[in-house]
Amino acid sequence: MYTAARQHLLTVRDLLRFAVSRFNEAELFFGHGSHSAWDEAAYLILHSLKLPLDKLEPFLDARLLPSELDAALQLIEARVSSRKPAAYLTREAWLGPYRFYVDERVIVPRSFIAELLPESLTPWIEYPELVHRALDLCTGSGCLAILLAEHYPDAEVDAVDLSADALAVAEINVEQYGLSERLRLLRSDLYTAVEGETYDLIISNPPYVDAPSVAALPQEYLHEPELALGSGEDGLDATRTIIENASRFLNPHGVLVVEIGHNREVLEPQYPELEFIWLDTSGGDGFVFLLTREMLIEAGY
Description:
Rossmann fold, 9 strands
């Protein structure tokens, strides 16, 4: 098939059509930054050709050099044969305009919290300069910690993860963004390494996939670290630890923001005394909750 493709595909448009067909035929799963065969094919082709990722249309009818065609076809074939998420093939992932280095040592970044940080935490955080210290639990690649530092320029940020491998990747990203002076990476099982510290804002995108769902995940997810996906039978072991200990680590009027996937109906009955604030995201209002220190203390946590 790829021998014929090298003979007959002439333009970016030809290559795009071929890639979409191959991805659909292989029944690939898209959930790591792309949402369709078209989106993923366009991304991989533009990346391979070193073209702007947001400008496909001007290049659709551009003729391809044999070396360019070979490089793109190799990437397309690697996506089909390995079923690795595209981010692991290109060694990059994007959250909005922010690019991060990733590899198989970390989960591919895809958090709704990223879209909330610029301004959606108002009125609970009235002004960015009110955040002097922030904490990112389960930081993985460091992407959310870096966004914390970017959006709250007066904040010192701590980022923790249980995985030394993940922290090695996070260090690459922290250095690329020039944040080593403001962003501290710590190996820690959630709060253990920051005992005695307090923060104005704590965020977390912890493991939250329940055990039955972990067992049924598409093959693409099996390339990600297992530690970063599941958390106990109902997926909420880490989330419970985060909630039940957060008030000790929050300053007065401090805020906790946690992403929990599709677990709202499982979580809320476990904490009937807590009035979770569910934040609006591009995916809906059931994926990320907010609690203040005062709400936690009033509920007995």
